[in-house]
TrEMBL record:
PROSITE patterns: MFS. Keywords: Membrane, Transmembrane, Transmembrane helix. The chain crosses the membrane at residues 56-79, 86-104, 110-134, 146-167, 173-195, 240-266, 272-298, 319-341, 395-417. This is MFS transporter. The keyword Transmembrane helix applies. The keyword Aminoacyl-tRNA synthetase does not apply. It comes from the Bacteria. GO terms for molecular function: transmembrane transporter activity. Residues 19-421 form the Major facilitator superfamily (MFS) profile domain. It comes from Sphingomonas lycopersici.
């Protein structure tokens, strides 16, 4: 269908590249919005079914975990089966699973629909998709475009929350489910229409490449699982992989796992209505769009390791401070702006470091495995914070511990930079 769109002459070849980016941006936005929806559903499901918060948090944790675990296999599937087909399959799984949840009656129904099936579907439309699109369609400006696509994942997770919270007014949960399901379904024809498999399909090359340049050599065809595992085994021999995996674990722990899942409930403990709390998250999403796009621009120009150290350090300190705020409008607005700018500004530098260390061909799969670390951290925070809240009656320990991990991640990155500089000085001497 994308070839037909091009043949009509309505869309110039180079303009079509940005249509691909736009479609990918919206798909990532909706996928991330789906993964954030359990935060809105937490209180309505608790009221309607009588399920405890730890049980509801478990379903969110399963979805977040699979969202990450599927990443490297989805990247390999894109290499062997195709990016567009993988996107379409993921979107249809998300639409079907969420729609089926309208008839759920037991907690395991929620775990199956919003945890397992939608987790698998959304994992195919996650940050690894952005990395694959950037590497396949852009020879230059990769950091900037990756920043824009990364921003969409947080923007989707946060910007839609006020609407979803409004739909859940009075404890209603079915309108929220219907809205998410229809959004996923609406994207299917759009992706089919405007996303070709590769630039050559519409008679153009990668952005920033001269027409006629040879495209990057594709990976040898292999079984999807085998390709993903073999890339992991090669990447695991390099310490840089485990450093990026560990710091991205902290990224997930401190963002969508904790703040994205529990912020509305946390604000509710302080007497703030769900719509108002969702508005704070929406503000974070808007500022994340600015912050992560700017982070992509900075990644093209500065040492990504230094950027990551700053991002994690500031994020950790802000999370430690949050529980001790007055929770008035001014303090929460300042936190939302500051935290939003830093939400997933970590993605462009991490992708850049993965590309540099593992090469553009294998980097999307490697980043998929690094993304698994992110979602492991997010799943731990989503479930653990719910357990802590049930056991202690407060979220304070969860936020303080998460903040401390951010400071530790910054310290590890500074240590990496110091060791590299010391090695370089010795080599020169």
């Amino acid at each position: 269908m994308s070839r037909m769109l091009h043949r009509t002459g309505l869309v110039p070849r180079r303009v079509h590249i940005f249509l691909v980016v736009a479609a990918t941006f919206v798909a990532l936005l909706v996928s991330a919005g789906l993964r954030a929806t359990p935060g809105v559903l937490m209180q309505p499901l608790e009221l309607h079914f009588g399920w405890d918060r730890a049980t509801i948090s478990f379903a969110a944790a399963v979805g977040i975990f699979l969202y990450g675990l599927v990443g490297p296999f989805a990247a390999a599937l894109m290499m062997t089966f195709g990016i567009r087909r993988t996107m379409l399959g993921g979107l249809m799984l998300m639409a079907g699973a969420t729609f089926a949840s309208l008839w759920m009656r037991e907690p395991w129904h929620y775990v199956l629909s919003w945890g397992v099936i939608s987790g698998i579907g959304s994992g195919a439309v996650a940050s690894v998709l952005g990395a694959a699109i950037v590497n396949r369609w852009f020879a230059t400006r990769q950091g900037l475009v990756m920043g824009l696509l990364s921003a969409s994942t947080a923007t989707g997770a946060l910007v839609f929350l006020p609407l979803l919270a409004w739909l859940s007014t009075g404890g209603a949960w079915r309108p929220v489910v219907m809205a998410v399901s229809l959004a996923c379904l609406a994207l299917v024809p759009i992706v089919a229409l405007v996303v070709p498999e590769r630039p050559g399909d519409i008679g153009t090359g990668r952005f920033g490449e001269e027409l006629g340049s040879a495209p990057p050599a594709p990976l040898k065809q292999a079984g999807t699982a085998g390709l993903a595992i073999s890339v992991l085994l090669r990447a695991g021999r390099k310490p840089v992989f485990w450093l990026l995996f560990g710091t991205f674990f902290v990224c997930g722990l401190t963002t969508n796992g904790l703040v994205g899942t529990h912020m509305i409930a946390f604000c509710g403990d302080h007497g703030i209505a769900p719509v108002a709390a969702a508005g704070l998250l929406s503000m974070m999403g808007l500022f994340d769009l600015v912050g992560t796009t700017a982070s992509g621009w900075l990644t093209d120009r500065y040492d990504p390791r230094k950027l990551l150290a700053v991002y994690y350090g500031l994020r950790g300190l802000s999370l430690v401070a949050l529980p001790f705020l007055n929770f008035d409008t001014m303090s929460l607005t300042i936190f939302a702006i500051f935290y939003g700018l830093d939400w997933i500004a970590t993605v462009p530098p991490t992708v850049k470091l993965a590309n540099d260390a593992f090469g553009e061909q294998e980097a999307p799969i490697v980043f998929g495995w690094i993304q698994t670390g992110h979602q492991l951290g997010a799943a731990l925070a989503a479930f653990g914070a719910g357990v802590i809240r049930e056991a202690t009656g407060t979220y304070l320990p969860a936020f303080v511990v998460a903040g401390a991990t951010g400071v530790i991640a910054a310290g590890l990155l500074l240590g990496w930079i110091s060791r590299t500089q010391f090695h370089d000085r010795r080599h020169i001497a």
